[in-house]
Design brief:
The chain has two domains: 3-34 and 161-604, Alpha-Beta Barrel (TIM Barrel), CATH 3.20.20; 614-698, Sandwich (Immunoglobulin-like). It is 24% helix and 20% strand. The protein is built from 18 helices and 30 strands. It has an eight-stranded parallel β-barrel with strand order 10-11-15-16-17-18-21-22. The protein has a six-stranded antiparallel beta sheet with strand order 4-3-7-9-8-14. A hairpin with a 6-residue loop joins strand 8 and strand 9 (150-153). Helix 8 runs parallel beside helix 9 and helix 15 (521-535) packs parallel to helix 17 (591-606). The chain is elongated.
Length: 699
């Protein structure tokens, strides 16, 4: 199954999350390994604690690879990245399925791979004609084709962190900015010299990149996948290819949800990175140091780094090592040896295998210790077995008690409550749907003056309080709720609003991008109200890059044979072009919205009770209009220095009135502006909130 089906399934799972909740309530949202058949349970007996990969031990370089079903394994070393033949060394197998060979000295800079001969079987893909990269390789040089040919590089572990360590603060203090490394700076409007690279992210004194993040005020970034991945898919409509590609005219995988090497940084984002056919990326392993430079540079400015990681499946079309080392051991298969694909990606990783689990845990720990990563968002996390999930958070917290472990809580099921019981946070799609809507065509939410699905006023209270189980929500604690209105998937929030207000349709061809970008007055009001609801709700906050200025995604005109060019895109996974690249000129078009987000971020930082207040400190106000909601956070119970009053009106036509609690109130947020500066003082009695707007006051 191909990547377009992957994204389709992910979107379907999210769009119909309510259906999944009903189906999986019967099983209490628990994972059982019996969900998937195992036709080779005898392989579970193979397990080893030996260090895998290439390691320096006693002045030798020791190579080890776990391949229990292999008949023979040969180490192949190269002096140059593009050599076709190298020195070959037969390896020795121990009783636990680990093959080993040692070379004298510290072989830094050496390129290497393995030839693996397996048993002839429907459960095997081993082919000694292929040189397979070590799955534990710490750096990989790759060639730009769909086979993603590569060689491991032995890199010297020397780096000056200058005293850097993790950003250790509660998750509720975070304003997470989900971003793609390349998209953040590659557009010419960013002004970045090292555009589209790790270095570009931290380049200072420019319109885009680090200075932009600091101006906005976010204090965490969530990077779309940066573990080395298969960038290129099979050619479009080429019958000589192993799979006939009818779905992806770009033949690219831009987002990165097809991981090849779980210990190696993506080399396309390093210096010298390119996508020219059959050229190479990461020749010198420079991606290792440059990724560390990026993390260190972000940490210096107080910005935490969270990685989006994909352990539920592997890259589909390339010479992925796990498939060619031991398909039977590492993947969930049917009785005929075919890959199961509940992920929609052509193969599901068998996380419940002992050595597969070990790899995942060691990968997480490696990125924490070697790269100072502050947390992880796990793609399609419900496809990971329960024992692995428990071990991930247990082992990660041993290293950093503040580590952020976040689930995308679906994948062959829907289970945010299950992850919360394990101590994980999770994306709160119910919050997203209740506030914004499930789709912009016929199922919009509160900010449009509608009720999405079965939502009603009590649901709004639940979202504000952190979707706690005490309020019939999904989470044991409000800090487990990652509240959001937009992610990389589906329409941007800006385009959702454009379509939801009927100003445009998904079938319209956009001829004027600037005009499309500029919000109408009503669209601006809806966007502001959504942002206000997001930033005054308990739990953690995530926004997607460009959300703060209502970024749109219009499929850019290129030479790709895509008949949808000019239309709004809801699934831009395959477009390394202006469809995805952040155009900072568009920020200026919607500067009022940008400043509103900026003000709300500052407000949330100054008044942390907006993200983490005891439930007993909340008092909800009465209002005759069910599309309006108001609440008071009492300082006597919250520990704050001020009482905080929030009033929101989702009715698109009718103003609403609230009776203010006694005392003099000062306005910090209204329909036009937001921030920490007082906009109006000494407000008493009754106050009117205009249609589709909100207000925040302090006393």
């Amino acid at each position: 199954m191909a990547l377009n089906f992957y994204t389709l399934i992910k979107q379907t799972q999210k769009l119909f999350s309510g259906v999944f909740m009903i189906l999986f309530a019967l099983t209490s949202s628990t994972f059982s390994q019996s969900r998937y058949p195992d036709y080779s349970p005898e392989l579970d007996r193979y397990y080893s604690e030996k260090p895998l990969g290439a390691n320096i031990e006693n002045s030798q370089t020791v190579f080890r690879i776990f391949a229990p079903n292999a008949v023979s394994v040969t180490l192949v070393t190269f002096e140059k990245h593009d050599e076709k033949t190298g020195n070959e060394y037969p390896m020795n197998r121990d009783a636990d399925g680990v093959w080993e060979f040692s070379l004298p000295g510290e072989q830094f800079g050496l390129y290497y791979g393995y030839r693996i001969t397996g048993k002839k079987s429907k459960f095997s893909m081993s082919d000694p004609a292929n040189i397979i990269v070590d799955p534990y390789a710490k750096a990989v040089v790759t060639r730009n084709n769909y086979s993603h040919e590569g060689k491991g590089i032995i890199v010297e572990n020397r780096y000056d962190w200058e005293g850097d360590t993790w950003i250790q603060k509660p998750i509720t203090d975070l304003v997470i900015y989900e971003m793609h490394v390349r998209d953040l700076t590659v557009h010419s409007s960013s002004g970045i010299s090292n555009a589209g690279s790790y270095g570009g992210v931290i380049e200072e004194g420019k319109i885009g990149g680090l200075d932009y993040l600091l101006d906005l005020g976010v204090n965490a970034v969530e990077l779309l996948p940066c573990q080395d991945f298969g960038n290129i898919e099979v050619p479009f409509k080429d019958r000589s290819a192993p799979v006939y590609n009818t779905w992806n005219p770009y033949a690219r995988n831009h987002w990165g949800y097809m991981t090849s090497y779980f210990f190696a940084p993506e080399s396309y984002y390093a210096s010298g990175g390119n996508m020219k056919e059959n050229e190479y990326c990461g020749i010198h392993g420079q991606q290792v140091g440059e990724f560390k430079d990026m993390v260190k540079g972000l940490h210096k400015k107080g910005i935490a780094v969270i990685m989006d990681v994909v352990y539920n499946h592997c890259s589909e079309y390339d010479l992925n090592p796990f498939k060619y080392i031991d398909k039977q051991y590492y993947f969930r298969l049917d009785k005929d040896g075919n890959f199961l694909s509940k992920s929609g990606c052509g193969n599901d990783f068998k996380t419940e295998r002992p050595m597969a689990r070990r790899m995942i845990i060691e990968s997480v720990k490696y990125w924490m210790t070697e790269y100072h990563i502050d947390g992880f968002r796990f793609d399609l996390a419900y496809l990971l077995d329960e024992k692995t999930c428990k071990e991930i958070i247990r082992e990660a917290k041993k290293i950093n008690p503040y580590v952020y472990i976040i689930a995308e809580p679906w994948g062959d099921g829907y289970a945010p409550d299950y992850f919360s019981r394990l101590g994980w946070a999770a994306w709160n799609d119910k919050f997203r749907n209740g506030v914004k809507g499930q789709n912009p065509f016929d199922n919009t939410g509160f900010i449009f003056g509608n009720w999405e699905g079965e939502n009603k006023p009590d649901n709004l209270k639940r979202y504000i309080l952190g979707s706690n189980i005490a309020d019939k929500g999904q989470f044991q604690k409000p800090e487990h709720s990652i509240n959001y209105l937009e992610s990389h998937d589906d329409f941007t929030f800006g385009d959702f609003v454009r379509i939801g207000t009927k100003a445009e349709t998904a079938s319209d061809k956009i001829l004027d991008i600037a005009r499309h970008t500029r919000l109408t007055p009503q669209q601006l009001k809806i966007s502001k109200l959504g942002a206000l609801f997001l930033f005054v709700s308990q739990g953690a906050v995530m926004i997607h890059q460009g959300q703060e200025f209502a970024r749109g995604k219009v499929i850019a005109k290129t030479d790709a044979p895509d008949p949808e060019q000019g239309h709004i895109d809801h699934n831009s996974y395959n477009k390394d072009n202006e469809t995805n690249w952040i155009n900072y000129e568009h920020k200026e078009i919607n500067i009022e919205l940008y400043n509103y987000y900026k003000g709300l971020i500052a407000l949330r930082k100054k008044y942390p009770v907006l993200s983490k207040a005891p439930r007993q400190s909340f008092e909800f106000l009465k209002c005759d209009n069910e599309l309006a909601i108001g609440f008071l956070i009492h300082k006597n119970h919250s520990g704050g220095n001020n009482d905080i009053l929030v009033l929101m009106n989702g009715d698109p036509k009718t103003p609403v009135k609230f009776k203010l609690p006694e005392g003099d109130w000062a306005t910090l947020v209204n329909a036009e502006k937001s921030g920490t500066e007082i906009l109006r003082n000494k407000i008493q009695g009754e106050i009117q909130i205009p249609a589709t707007s909100g207000m925040v006051c302090i006393r």
